[in-house]
């Protein structure tokens, strides 16, 4: 991978407004957080201006409302294990990072699984009912991958 660039400050007013609403625990603007969210397994880095780790669905609503008002590009990210650069923020802006949203619910009657976007494929397989050993979510690295494109 090439050299590390500092987070691009293309929408400073919008980022400040988001920080004021959600706080620095949710809205990360430090170089390490931005760099970690700048690439996936394709390893082409595009620095975002901020990384949002929402605590609630309302946090996502606040983020998207401000992004629309200020025309800030938004990229959603799971674990970043994709191989196509799809979650790299090529236009900068904000990354919504949902790796920590990993709840899994499986209805024992219908066998319907309801999972959050950060759920790890292997954990879903583990939680599937005993008589349904496979969910067919058998990524070659299911211990790491999340739901976005394996589902
Ligand atoms: C060695 C290796 C083997 C792999 N094997 C497989 C395989 O067998 N099967 C397979 O399907 N994939 C495979 N992959 C690809 C990848 O790991 C999976 O596609 C995985 O599901 C991606 O999950 P992620 O959370 O890391 O997504 P990310 O890489 O973070 O994102 C992938 C895409 O989903 C979007 N996205 C992420 N979260 C959300 C969300 N909440 N809402 C809307 N969009 C969202 C991103 O913007 C991006 O476009 C493999 C990758 C590697 C490196």
What would CATH call the class of the largest domain? Alpha Beta
* Mean pLDDT metric: 86
The low-pLDDT segments are none
CATH architecture of the largest domain: 2-Layer Sandwich
Bound molecules: flavin-adenine dinucleotide
Count of alpha/pi helices: 4
> Tally of extended strands?
6
CATH superfamily of the largest domain: Uridine Diphospho-n-acetylenolpyruvylglucosamine Reductase, domain 2
Structural class by secondary-structure content: alpha/beta
Cα end-to-end separation:
29 Å
Q: What is the third-level CATH name, the topology of the largest domain?
A: Uridine Diphospho-n-acetylenolpyruvylglucosamine Reductase, domain 2
How would you sum up the major sheet? Answer: 4 strands, mixed
Net shape: globular
> What series of H and E elements makes up the topology?
HEHEHEEEEH
Summary?
The chain is of the alpha/beta class and 151 residues long.
How would you describe the overall organization of this protein?
With 151 residues, the chain is α/β, with parallel strands linked by helices. It folds into 2 domains: 12-97, Uridine Diphospho-n-acetylenolpyruvylglucosamine Reductase, domain 2; 102-145, no CATH class. The protein has helices at 12-22, 31-36, 57-70, 121-127; strands at 27-28, 50-52, 74-77, 94-97, 104-106, 113-115. The strands form 2 sheets. The protein has a 4-stranded mixed sheet. α1 (12-22) runs antiparallel to α3 (57-70). The longest helix is centred in the middle third of the chain and has 14 residues, at 57-70. It is globular. The protein binds flavin-adenine dinucleotide (FAD). Residues 40-41, 75-83, 86-87, 98, 117, 139-141, 145-146, 148-150 line the site of flavin-adenine dinucleotide (FAD). Residues 40-41, 75-83, 86-87, 98, 117, 139-141, 145-146, 148-150 line the site of flavin-adenine dinucleotide.
């Amino acid at each position: 991978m090439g050299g590390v660039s500092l987070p691009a400050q293309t929408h400073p007013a919008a980022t400040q407004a988001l920080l004021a609403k959600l706080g620095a625990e949710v809205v990360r603007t430090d170089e390490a957080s931005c760099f970690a969210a700048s690439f996936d397994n394709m390893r082409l880095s595009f620095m975002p201006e901020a990384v949002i780790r929402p605590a609630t669905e309302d946090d996502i609503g606040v983020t998207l409302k401000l992004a629309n008002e200020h025309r800030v590009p938004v990229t959603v990210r799971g674990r970043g294990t994709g191989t196509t650069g799809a979650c790299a923020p090529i236009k900068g802006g904000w990354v919504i990072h949902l790796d920590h949203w990993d709840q899994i619910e499986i209805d024992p009657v219908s066998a319907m699984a309801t999972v959050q976007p950060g759920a790890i494929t292997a954990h879903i397989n583990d939680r599937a009912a005993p008589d349904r050993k496979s969910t067919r979510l058998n990524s070659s690295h299911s211990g790491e991958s999340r739901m976005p494109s394996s589902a």
